[in-house]
């Protein structure tokens, strides 16, 4: 990547140098031709004009090709690095980020890496090379004109950006956070629109959204003002270089120090030079926004994984497996413990219900067992071996987690199932659907398993979405299943029927059923209640265990 970027810098410098050379040579050729010399005396200049004209286009194409290739490779590596990091720290490690804000960081802020290379670093590198060469060229013909050109380049390339950075730091530095706030507020408005309408709170949210948009427009307006100031400074510096070059060159020609046909070179060369460096103030202004975006990406990369991966993981013990929590405490955010001294045992084939009020830590227990989170105190074990001795991937080969909001992708039923096992055959898909009591319904659909489920599964009912998510978990063939609030938003009778079907579909597997419905406890072997104190196991019921044939 560095080699490609170096080639881009050299090609860009060559293209800009060709533009300057084209201007200088053309000025010389026109001035020289006005003296009516023999044509042969003009051949070198004519060939040079053709070479510079063709070379400028070829080299500019090479700069765009290699520069964007290098930048896109850097962008790809950045995306891979960030997504790999997110896969390692999610979900517990991202508890401090808002979803819409995180999406904004992964989109616009990551794209800032491309802008940083192509719109900031590359223009400055090219301008440095071409500007120095042009100052030497003009200075060799007229020292005052060379000094003036150097001064103008410093003003445009260094002075104006420094003033911009001080005046526009607050404006450009706020653009990325304000865009993130706007994206978050928009997402909240769209997702919560039914509730907002029901409570008559739409106008208040729209007012907040409008205020954020107004703040964003103000920041963009300040940024645009500085861009106008930079353009004016560039025009003034260009005009000053022309006037000084004309005056100094005329004096030199009259004094016999400078040949007359070279006066046009001294006067017109700055036009091409400032065309190259004229974009530096905009590049410097873009740098402020890029720095804000890079800072936000660093915040994501600084998120620490809540799970420690061992350098030499222990081999998984042979089944059947027993999963146990021993006096465990846990926290999603530092200093905010949500689970205190919880003990729980899942022996092979057990059906256990975990109940308790909202906020008692039921989902945190699931996160501990599937190694989304490590205990802050106590320990979690698999067959007596601390879970931290295994990698999270090892644990998740055995323990499957079906969250309350299990995501369905906007694709077909078959594609959603094959997320669990990409090589699954159609017969295996149908078997999983049958176990989840969905096959009869799927067979009534015109497209069968190729039916689209819609965004977030909106084409399905709530019960069908949960059954499809369960079928996906069954297809993965986990030995231990954790079902987190599978009957949420259902009435009691429907919830009881769905729970019976879920437990039946689980067959011989160990099942931990997380629910806030105490009545569900009658369908399992044992119920554990979480509360402000230690969990209290409820006496096992004499209800027969649901089997796969039930």
TrEMBL record:
Domain ABC transporter intervals: 323-550
Keyword Cytoplasm part of the UniProt annotation: no
NCBIfam families: CydC
Name of the protein: Thiol reductant ABC exporter subunit CydC
Provenance organism: Paractinoplanes globisporus
SMART domains given in the database record: AAA
Residue ranges of domain ABC transmembrane type-1 in the record: 6-289
Bilayer topology annotation: Multi-pass membrane protein
Transmembrane segments: 39-59, 121-139, 145-163, 225-250, 262-288
Keywords assigned by UniProt, alphabetized: ATP-binding, Membrane, Nucleotide-binding, Transmembrane, Transmembrane helix
Entry's localization field: Cell membrane
């Amino acid at each position: 990547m560095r080699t490609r970027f170096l080639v881009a810098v050299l090609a860009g410098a060559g293209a800009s140098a060709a533009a300057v050379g084209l201007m200088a040579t053309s000025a010389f050729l026109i001035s020289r031709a006005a003296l009516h010399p023999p044509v042969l005396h003009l051949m070198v200049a004519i060939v040079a004009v053709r070479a510079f004209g063709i070379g400028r286009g070829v080299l500019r194409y090479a700069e765009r090709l290699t520069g964007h290739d290098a930048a896109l490779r850097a962008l790809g590596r950045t995306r891979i690095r960030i997504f790999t990091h997110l896969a390692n720290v999610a979900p517990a490690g991202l508890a401090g980020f808002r979803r819409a804000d995180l999406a904004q960081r992964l989109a616009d802020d990551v794209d800032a890496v491309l802008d940083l290379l192509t719109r900031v670093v590359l223009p400055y590198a090219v301008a440095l090379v071409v500007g120095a060469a042009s100052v030497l060229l003009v200075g060799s013909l007229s020292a005052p004109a060379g000094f003036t050109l150097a001064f103008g380049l410093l003003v445009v390339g260094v002075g104006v950006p420094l003033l911009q950075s001080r005046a526009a730091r607050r404006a450009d530095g706020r653009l990325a956070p304000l865009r993130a706030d706007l994206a978050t507020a928009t997402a909240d408005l769209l997702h919560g629109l039914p509730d907002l309408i029901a409570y008559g709170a739409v106008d208040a949210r729209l007012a907040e959204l409008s205020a954020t948009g107004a703040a964003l427009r103000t920041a963009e307006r300040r940024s645009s003002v500085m861009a106008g100031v930079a353009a004016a400074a560039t025009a003034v510096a260009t005009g000053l270089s022309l006037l000084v070059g004309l005056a100094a060159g005329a004096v030199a020609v009259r004094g016999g120090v400078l040949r007359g046909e070279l006066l046009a070179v001294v006067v017109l060369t700055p036009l091409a030079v400032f065309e190259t460096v004229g974009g530096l103030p905009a590049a410097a202004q873009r740098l402020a926004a890029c720095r804000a975006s890079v800072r936000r990406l660093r915040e994501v990369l600084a998120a620490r994984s809540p799970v420690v991966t061992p350098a030499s993981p222990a081999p998984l013990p042979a089944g059947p497996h027993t999963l146990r929590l021993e006096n465990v405490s846990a926290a999603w955010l530092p200093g905010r413990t949500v689970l205190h001294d919880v003990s729980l045992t899942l022996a092979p084939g057990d059906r256990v219900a975990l109940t308790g009020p909202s906020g008692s830590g039921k989902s945190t227990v699931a996160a501990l067992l599937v190694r989304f989170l490590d205990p802050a105190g106590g320990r979690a074990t698999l067959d007596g071996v601390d879970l931290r001795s295994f990698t999270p991937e090892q644990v998740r080969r055995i323990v499957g987690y079906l969250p309350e909001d299990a995501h369905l992708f906007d694709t077909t039923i078959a594609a959603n199932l094959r997320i669990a096992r990409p090589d699954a055959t159609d017969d295996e898909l149908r078997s999983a659907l049958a176990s989840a009591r969905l096959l009869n319904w799927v067979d009534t659909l015109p497209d069968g398993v190729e039916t689209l489920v819609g965004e977030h599964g909106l084409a399905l009912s709530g019960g069908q979405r949960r059954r499809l998510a369960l079928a996906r978990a069954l297809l993965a063939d986990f030995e231990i299943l954790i079902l987190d609030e599978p009957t949420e938003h259902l009435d009691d009778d429907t919830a009881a029927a769905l729970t019976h079907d879920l437990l039946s579909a689980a067959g011989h597997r160990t099942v931990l059923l997380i629910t806030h419905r105490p009545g569900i406890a009658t369908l399992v072997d044992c119920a554990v209640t979480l509360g402000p104190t230690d969990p209290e196991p409820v006496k096992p019921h004499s209800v027969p265990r649901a089997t796969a044939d039930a």
